[in-house]
Fold Polysaccharide biosynthesis protein.
Amino acid sequence: MNKKRVAINMTAQLLAFGVNMALGFILVPVIEAMIPNAYGFTDIANKFVSAAQIVVSALNTMASRFITIRIHRNEQQEAEEYFSSVFFANVIMAVVFMVPALFVVLYVGRIFQIPEAASLVDIQMLFFFIFLNFLISIVTSVFSVASYSKDRLELSSISTILGELTRLTVLSVCYLFFKPYLFYVGCASVCSTVIQAVANLTFTRKLLPEMKIRLRDFRWSKIWELVSLGAWNSVTRLGQLLLDGLNTSIANIMVSSAAMTTISISTQIPEVISNLMGTIAGVFNPQMTIAYAKDDKEQLLDIISSADRIMIFIISIPIAFLTVFGRSFFQLWVGKTQDPDQLYILALLNVGTLFVSASIQVLYHVFLITKRVKLNSMVIVGSGVLTVATVFVLLETTNLGMYAIVGVSMVYGILRNLIFTPLYAARCLQVKWYTFYGDILMGLVSIGLICLVVLPFELFIHIDGWIKLFAVGIVAGVLALFVNFFVVLRKAERQMVLEKVRSKLHRH
């Protein structure tokens, strides 16, 4: 494993993630204060996009794998045919999706409850811009393959940062100098995606100068090859959408628009943690794909082992902090417009699955590179169907309301990640069945110990302001790192860290 490349990619990806997280952190309370009970519509619009991505993913999730493997096996003509075929197929899909997108925009007022504080035209424009952003993103998605195939994810991070800074600029200008509307969020996303597309196109010309988009290289056979395998990834996305992607829509239709917004806000921090997991896991995906392309199983297992430990070392801390400090955080963040206790409980239910999945997130890429996605897809969609069915039953027969909508997803998610994911990944890699359970146990121990160590701060310090929360967080964070230093890192890794610290101190 190229540790230097991992460090560079990780730093860049985390920086891009931090910019995105900071923007969302600022944006939610501002919009909720200006337009009460309306922010949830951004989540609903994005869930429509997620539904459309189910179809798109049948083609695009496998594109990076096939192009990268062909490049590293020196099959240049094959790589170029995949590249051009994916681009033109995406253009065709974008044209097709324009019809249902316009239908939803025109009739959104008949589909959902619109709160009095919001404008129907504003909501329609929000949906229009978010759908437009989706169409632009799928047409230009193939240009992100270059940084992936060359294991230069820091370039992808640069494009993300440029896009997020653009989004921040557009939103700041709109909300500071004009009357507040919700559609600014969608408009800013369009500007961000355009900037990222231009950056990725530039990187493609630099990293893969020989890769050109040519109509003569378009092959229906390549599209069929990608879709026939990628269709199971679409099934996986459908299952994920059923598991937790419909929460806000179900809440709007079966409870109220206020419940929709409450659930949407409660998912913000768990989604940040989940996205951080995806960011870290994504850093290792190119090297895993390249190792598989070279038939180097030993290196592949080494990358997975390192990825799991790094994931636990980083992710266990925000999970534990949300568990311990979540109520105080929500009180400070949106306590004037929402019930912080309610948000805290919903957030814990949302993050519950991550207690298990955080330790084995990288295993999902194993299914993709080994082309063993079928069974995983069937299990996920099956659990998704059970989730939706169980939610409807509980809403009709109990008074659990929002807690049923969120809690059921957590239960099925935990069961799937405990029983199926580690076992099937071990089978795909032809290793012992219990290989990855040690990582799950390590993750739970790490989270539990950090919670015990930092709990006194929450119990004995009255956190009544952001400065105090950040001060407590810094001290607790140092203690959490100390815990993970001994729990997660192996002896050789601890010695390496200590040597680097000593060399830095000696240099100063």
Summary: The first helix runs from residue 3 to 34. The chain has a mean pLDDT of 81. Residues 267-508 form one domain. The chain is about 85% helix and 0% strand.
